[in-house]
Amino acid sequence: MSDFNGKDVLITGGAGGIGLLMGKHALKAGANKLFIWDISSEAISNAHQTLSKYNNQVYSYEVDIAKPNQIYQTADRLLKAHGPVDILINNAGTVVGGPFKNYAPQQIEHLIRLNLLGAMHTTQAFLDNMITQKSGHIVNIASAAGRMANPNMSVYTSSKWGLIGWSDSLRLELKSYPHIHVSTIEPSYINTGLFEGVTPPALTPLLDAGEISEKIIKAIRKNKTHLREPFMVKILPFLKGILPTPVFDFVAGQLFQVYHSMDTFTGRT
Questions:
Q1: For residue 230, is the peptide bond before it cis, meaning its omega torsion is within 30 degrees of 0?
Q2: Marked catalytic residue, from 61, 72, 156, 177
Q3: 119 exposed, middle or buried (CB, 10 Å; 0-12, 13-18, 19+)?
Q4: DSSP of 164-195, one letter per residue?
Q5: What ranges do the domains of the chain cover?
């Protein structure tokens, strides 16, 4: 089990949403130091004030996860000042909705850099130290969108498909280091505001941010390989495996209305 007690934890995108909530849970579980990385200086200031109530060893860094040079420079500063990270939670991410033909090239590039490459580079920056200390846990916050196609979120979906594939491949590579664990988290829509206006599919309610963040922390402690929520997401790989594509499209698109869930998306203002 990956016990948080006495461990040093880094959460990217840790100044808001489930990142902030996971930080609270980690500190309550006994984390020694909590490092939060975020792009917003205002959010970082507010988060630091909130999290410091639980532990005075909270350290915040303003960093753009979409820029590899900032990742490696900030990681170098952190490692020199505090030493290796025990638990890394790659949580930073964003979404752009709408038809693919309407995407600006910069939006495509930024989404992939932030949601996918950011997690890869951040992990690369800390992995050698985890191997050296023979201890570590890498947690990648993916999405149920990484398990199935969905209109009007094609680039977001592709970034999460890539994240799941990389995360599970990394897990297999690291089997030769039995004290390093990899967990892939695949939730459906969460009520953090990131997917404001979205219409949750049938039998797939909007997830409560507080509840899912607590479940993620529990999954980390149990070294779970995958966490999929809610129930319909758990059976998604099975349904895709047994149903022909036209049948699956009918079930997902017409019966459960998954393919129309982004029709009402407005996003965070």
A1: yes
A2: 156
A3: buried
A4: HHHHHHHHHHGGGSTTEEEEEEEE--BTTTTT
A5: 8-260
* Token code pair at residue 55: 């532990």
Between CA 195 and CA 178 the distance in angstroms is 37
Nearest alpha carbon to residue 20 among 42, 37, 3: 37
Q: Are 251 and 191 in contact (CB under 8 A)?
A: no
- 183-201: per-residue pLDDT in tens? 999 999 999 999 999 999 9
- Per the annotation, the verdict on 61 as an active-site residue is no
Superfamily of domain 8-260: NAD(P)-binding Rossmann-like Domain (3.40.50.720)
* Token pair recorded at residue 53: 């109530």
Shortest CA distance to 26 belongs to which of 76, 86, 67, 84?
86
Those residues whose C-beta lies under 8 Å from the C-beta of residue 151, and which sit 6 or more positions away, are 99, 259, 262
Question: What pTM was estimated for this model as a whole?
Answer: 0.97
